């Protein structure tokens, strides 16, 4: 036994039928074995008891470590562990200090609450580095997402959380998890995790609102009020200036002089109380041109305990006309800022943004204020999962300090409450914030300082813990040892200083880059004075006879430096440095922050370069309205086969989040830099307003931002290619989509936004329809995958596109195009994912059928289809079907010298379901290349990229082979499941004793006669109610043991629906027939059963309209596991994402299709909970009544003539239930009867007269 073996390092029991009893044996082994480091127990019926036994040696208790401290890698999955098993895992993770990797792949017996419990147990675990939750359907919902993000905020030791093929990944949230993991791996985070912590002491208040909403006036009144509350103003940053206008604002304000100051950029007030708690008030400029810079100030609201409170300020009056705004305008204005806040904040429980709404101009008496209060309550519920919106609406006169007291009190109370509830923050960061406030107070004219000043005058003087030790170059052994310790301490202190500075940079409190000589200690100055000044260059600006302008977003570098130099000389002190040096560094900061990029001259002898600043591009109404006409520029050879592909990236929660105004300008810079650095010799990248044009090695790509005036903002990627579909999609995903997704999840992107991918209609891409015309010509990738799943991977399935509003010429062109094949739209990689999901769904269904608990009239399920595991060294087989018998391993184990023991099923069976996708592998390779590109020459980069292209071509061929093999395996599994379902159908639909003895046929379905005398299946119990149809046709299925099916040309019999009582009587039979058809459909046996033509629009992916509540009438025991297992399929929390979409499909559908689709989705998502005892009794009585009606209806009828069925008894087949007196009796069609008589497998068994 392994208890005596001390050479094994790895034990793999994959699909080895290890039960709870076997787990007890493993527990005994692990208690004494101290050499095994890796244990894998996937696909074993451990159950909760087995999991508790297995983890007992790995779990410690108070004062005592675990008995086993050698296991480093533990793999479990598909073990039916349930909530009790999850609880055992959580308890183990709280106490185990040696386990490094835990894999919970495909463990679908647990729910989201169980996942949250496991995540919570990892908050203080410092040993775990890898957590694998791939293919786990419970990884879904807001609670799980927030649990993961909360965990990563407090546990920087976790290096990877694999969320492959989970609902959260399908909704786009795995990117945010990966971004946080990457951030945790950064050196400065690694340095900080061991630094001392304390209570957070700093909070920020942001005033958001459109121009002329009264934010600046409200800020001044609040500052006066806060001073009374024990806070004192440490600094009131003088960043408010008059914006030059050609005419006065007399008609804007009641001020007779007509001039009013407007905030350009961001105005900041910092206040500190006696406890050194700081509140900084940030007044965000309302003018649209400055919205693009707001992301700079709030890139990471949750960074190191820096919470935020938002005041959304709204003026209910139009400034030009002085008339009241409509309620719709007010709601849209408030919603704009709520979406902005939600899009910029992470999904965290402790850092959820607090928001309050303030309406100004109380003195003008807005008449609809009560309706605005109702709007606030509606928005509070709408945005609840992203932000905490106060239900109280503040209506104030911003000029009056007394009138703003309630707002001030809520701000102080909320900020202090947030600081009290937050987890501890790093003390060095808190002290650094106070030090920056002191510096800005004492040196308001030095918003940018040298690195030397930053280190010596701010860090060393204000934060003693980060002060570098003084070097002493004295002689002597003891002094030399002291010097060595000083060198080590100095190195650690330097790393700590850098870590704190980078943390504050992430939080938007400073602008810091380690390789720069200057630090911006007042970022709002940078936004206001530097970027705000550049915005003015949209028009000609003349200074000292030098005209500076931006044309198409491009300006000469020396002209920009000259302009900034003159402008900044008047406002800041240069700290003893040359002003031109500072302006050069400011431009470098712009480049590093992805606010601009440099265009180098084509001629090598030219010293002049230009700067492209996307935010200086002129605004165009046609672009915003989606009316820009695009054109393809590339001409390919005539022999080339041209394809057109379109992808769309949009927000998962379009009503709650949006791509902020600053996102696309940063994306333009990021894409340009990416292609310029990585593909310098292969790509060209050009930018226009809201548009990126890319030419790369046989591809022309247009990336367009649209939707501003159409309700929702999205990014369309339009591709014209001479390459294959696989290679085109691989290149686009790797070089474009990945860049967009990583920027979105970055701290300086849109952290609250999850992007989902859609597929554009190819003909719209080829024709380059206007954005406003193609906006609805899209299907989400997840929707299309579900359609293909519902069509049982039918390769001929086509996606129907909706109507498009275009001109006559475009309509003629589009009218010639047919609907597109789903597999061609998805591409090979996504189609492979659909195949894998189908395979996994069938495997789960097979497991459920195998564990089916039969009713009291049935024998217990036999232990069939046991997996026989084998290995090259050791043979293992079941000696008994009894789960209480211990598996007998070869005695050779005890003396074996092998380092690994593996008892697992055929590795090809899972068809690489759990392997990293090719796409992931490609992304990782490009990430490594991008990270180390500065160390490589152009030749090396070109060789790597050429190798990548060859790898893509090779992978295309391998992928086709894998998909073909997967299709074959799915076919075999569907046939096997079909036979198993037929064998257990009586148990599934809970037949009465009389029907189980087959006195009459029992498998019933109903049809009506449609157009052209074609039968149409009734798909709802409501369809048999009076008024729907006067008569329906009753049909019976052939009950052949090898597969039930519809009898061809069956006449059937007519049932008159004369009363509601009759309809209620037969309604359970309608649902029974639909249940059988749905099960056949789910295992892909609908075609073989002959029901393909009868299910409405099955070829178009619309399956049965089956209400899950109806299933409980006939499936009360379906999914209950056999004795010994506490998990049941009815209680399993299935993946609603498997057949659920983040957003409804943009294509309109009829009411009938929606009802049919929703019923199909409900069934395929999972089962209904078991009914209550009272309901179960009522359902049982209804079933008995319906069955008795069927017996009476068929009594005396010629079943052979009407239905083409004969009663037969099978020979040499064991009985299937206790109610059967011998071999099974069934009603079969004439063909199967004759075949059985000919081969001797059955004999006639007519009904004996009573």
Automatic annotation (TrEMBL):
SUPFAM superfamilies according to UniProt: P-loop containing nucleoside triphosphate hydrolases, RNI-like
Q: Which domain of life is it from?
A: Eukaryota
Q: Which SMART domains match?
A: LRR_RI (SM00368)
Keywords associated with the record: Coiled coil
Q: Which InterPro entries match?
A: Leu-rich_rpt (IPR001611), LRR_dom_sf (IPR032675), P-loop_NTPase (IPR027417)
The Low complexity compositionally biased stretches are 1121-1130
Please note every region of biased composition (Polar residues).
868-879
Q: Which residues form a coiled coil?
A: 835-862, 945-976
Region (Disordered) residue ranges read 864-893, 1120-1166
The record, for PANTHER family, names: PROTEIN TORNADO 1 (PTHR47679:SF1)
Q: What is this protein called?
A: C-terminal of Roc (COR) domain-containing protein
- This chain's source organism reads Sphagnum jensenii
């Amino acid at each position: 036994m392994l208890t005596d073996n001390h050479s094994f390092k790895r034990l793999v029991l994959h699909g080895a039928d290890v039960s709870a009893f076997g787990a007890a044996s493993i527990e005994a082994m692990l208690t004494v074995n101290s050499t095994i480091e890796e244990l894998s127990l996937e696909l074993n019926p451990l159950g909760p008891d087995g999991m508790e036994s297995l983890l007992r040696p790995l779990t410690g208790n108070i004062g005592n470590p675990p008995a086993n401290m050698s296991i480093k890698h533990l793999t479990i999955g598909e073990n039916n562990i349930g909530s009790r098993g999850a609880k055992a895992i959580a308890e183990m993770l709280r106490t185990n200090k040696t386990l490094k990797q835990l894999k919970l792949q495909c463990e679908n017996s647990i729910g989201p609450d169980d996942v949250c419990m496991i995540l919570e147990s990892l908050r203080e675990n410092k040993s775990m580095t890898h957590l694998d939750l791939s293919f786990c359907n419970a990884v879904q919902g807001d609670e799980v997402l927030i649990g993961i993000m909360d965990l990563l905020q407090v546990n920087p030791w976790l290096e990877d959380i694999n969320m492959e093929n989970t609902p959260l990944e399908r909704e786009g949230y795995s990117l945010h998890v990966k971004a946080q993991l990457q951030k945790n791996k950064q050196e400065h985070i690694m340095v900080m995790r061991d630094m001392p912590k304390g209570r957070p002491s700093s909070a920020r208040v942001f005033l958001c609102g459109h121009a002329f909403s009264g934010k600046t006036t409200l800020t001044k009144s609040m500052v006066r009020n806060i001073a009374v509350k024990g806070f004192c103003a440490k600094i009131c940053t003088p960043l408010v200036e008059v914006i030059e206008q050609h005419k006065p604002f007399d008609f804007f304000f009641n001020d007779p002089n007509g001039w009013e100051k407007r905030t350009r950029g961001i105005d900041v007030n910092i206040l500190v109380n006696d406890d050194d708690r700081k509140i900084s008030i940030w007044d965000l400029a309302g003018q649209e041109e400055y919205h693009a810079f707001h992301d700079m100030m709030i890139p990471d609201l949750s960074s190191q305990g820096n919470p935020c409170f938002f005041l959304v300020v709204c003026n209910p009056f139009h400034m030009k006309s002085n008339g009241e705004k409509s309620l719709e305008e007010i709601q849209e204005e408030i919603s704009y800022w709520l979406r902005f806040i939600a899009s910029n904040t992470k999904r965290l429980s402790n850092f959820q943004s607090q928001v309050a709404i303030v309406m100004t101009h109380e003195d003008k008496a807005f008449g609809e204020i009560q309706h605005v209060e109702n709007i606030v309550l509606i928005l509070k519920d709408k945005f609840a999962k992203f932000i905490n919106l106060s239900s109280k609406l503040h209506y104030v006169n911003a000029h009056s300090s007394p009138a703003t007291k309630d707002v001030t009190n809520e701000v102080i109370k909320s900020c202090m409450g947030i600081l009290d509830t937050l987890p501890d923050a790093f003390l060095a960061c808190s002290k650094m914030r106070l030090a920056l406030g002191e510096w800005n107070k004492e040196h308001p004219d030095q918003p940018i300082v040298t690195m030397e000043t930053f280190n010596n005058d701010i860090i060393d003087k204000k934060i003693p813990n980060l002060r570098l030790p003084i070097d002493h170059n004295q002689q002597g052994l003891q002094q030399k040892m002291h010097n060595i310790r000083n060198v080590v301490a100095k190195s650690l202190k330097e790393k700590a200083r850098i870590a704190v500075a980078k943390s504050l940079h992430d939080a938007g409190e400073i602008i810091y880059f380690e390789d720069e000589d200057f630090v911006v200690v007042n970022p709002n100055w940078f936004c206001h004075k530097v970027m705000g000044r550049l915005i003015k260059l949209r028009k000609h600006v003349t200074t000292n006879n030098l005209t500076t302008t931006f044309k198409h977003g491009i300006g000469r570098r020396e002209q920009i430096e000259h302009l900034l130099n003159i402008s900044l000389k008047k406002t800041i002190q240069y700290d003893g440095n040359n002003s031109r040096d500072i302006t050069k560094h400011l431009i470098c900061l712009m480049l590093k922050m992805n606010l601009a990029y440099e265009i180098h001259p084509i001629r090598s002898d030219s010293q002049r370069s230009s700067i492209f600043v996307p935010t200086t591009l002129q605004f165009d109404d046609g672009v915003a309205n989606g009316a820009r006409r695009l054109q393809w520029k590339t001409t390919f050879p005539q022999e080339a086969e041209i394809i057109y592909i379109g992808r769309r990236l949009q927000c998962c929660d379009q009503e709650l989040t949006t791509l902020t105004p600053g996102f696309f300008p940063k994306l333009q810079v990021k894409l340009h830099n990416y292609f310029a650095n990585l593909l310098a010799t292969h790509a060209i990248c050009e930018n226009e307003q809201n548009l990126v044009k890319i030419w790369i090695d046989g591809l022309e790509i247009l990336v367009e931002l649209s939707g501003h005036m159409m309700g929702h903002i999205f990014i369309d990627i339009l591709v014209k290619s001479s390459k294959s579909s696989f290679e085109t999609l691989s290149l686009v995903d790797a070089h474009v989509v990945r860049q967009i997704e990583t920027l979105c999840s970055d701290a300086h992107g849109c952290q609250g936004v999850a992007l989902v991918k859609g597929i554009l209609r190819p003909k719209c891409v080829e024709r380059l329809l206007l954005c406003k015309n193609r906006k609805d010509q899209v299907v989400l990738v997840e929707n299309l995958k579900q359609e293909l799943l519902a069509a049982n991977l039918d390769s001929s399935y086509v996606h129907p596109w909706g109507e498009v509003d275009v001109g006559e010429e475009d309509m003629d062109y589009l009218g010639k195009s047919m609907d597109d094949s789903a597999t061609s739209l998805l591409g090979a990689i996504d189609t492979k994912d659909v195949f894998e999901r189908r395979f996994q769904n069938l495997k789960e269904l097979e497991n459920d059928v195998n564990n089916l608990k039969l009713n009291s009239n049935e024998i217990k399920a036999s232990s069939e289809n046991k997996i026989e595991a084998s290995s090259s060294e050791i043979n293992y087989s079941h000696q008994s079907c009894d789960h209480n018998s211990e598996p007998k391993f070869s005695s050779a184990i005890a003396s074996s010298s092998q380092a690994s023991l593996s008892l697992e099923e055929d590795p090809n069976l899972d068809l690489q379901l759990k392997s990293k996708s090719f796409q992931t592998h490609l992304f990782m390779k490009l990430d490594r290349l991008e990270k180390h590109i500065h160390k490589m020459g152009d030749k090396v980069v070109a060789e790597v990229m050429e190798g990548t292209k060859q790898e893509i071509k090779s992978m295309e061929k391998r992928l086709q082979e894998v998909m073909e093999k997967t299709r074959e395996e799915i076919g075999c599994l569907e046939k096997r499941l079909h036979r198993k379902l037929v064998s257990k159908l009586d148990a599934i639909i809970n037949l009465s004793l009389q029907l189980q003895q087959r006195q009459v046929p029992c498998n019933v379905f109903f049809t009506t006669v449609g157009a052209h005398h074609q039968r149409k299946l009734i798909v709802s119990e409501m369809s048999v109610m009076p008024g729907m149809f006067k008569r329906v046709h009753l049909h019976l299925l052939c009950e052949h043991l090898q597969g039930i099916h519809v009898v061809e040309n069956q006449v059937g019999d007519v049932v008159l629906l004369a009363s509601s009582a009759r309809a209620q009587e037969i309604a359970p039979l309608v649902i029974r027939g639909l249940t059988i058809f749905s099960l056949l459909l789910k295992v892909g046996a609908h075609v073989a059963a002959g029901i393909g033509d009868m299910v409405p629009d099955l070829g178009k992916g619309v399956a049965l309209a089956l209400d899950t509540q109806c299933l409980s009438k006939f499936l009360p025991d379906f999914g209950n596991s056999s004795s010994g297992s506490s998990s049941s399929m009815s209680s399993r929390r299935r993946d609603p994402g498997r057949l659920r979409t983040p957003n409804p499909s943009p294509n309109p559908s009829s009411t009938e299709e929606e009802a049919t689709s929703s019923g199909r989705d409900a069934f395929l998502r999972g089962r209904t909970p078991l009914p209550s005892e009272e309901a179960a009794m009522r359902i049982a009585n209804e079933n008995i009544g319906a069955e008795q009606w069927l017996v009476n209806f068929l009594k005396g009828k010629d079943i052979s003539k009407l239905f083409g069925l004969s009663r037969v008894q099978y020979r040499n087949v064991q009985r299937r239930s206790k109610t059967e007196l011998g071999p099974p009796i069934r009603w079969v069609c004439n063909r199967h009867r004759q075949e059985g008589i000919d081969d001797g497998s059955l004999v006639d068994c007519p009904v004996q007269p009573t």
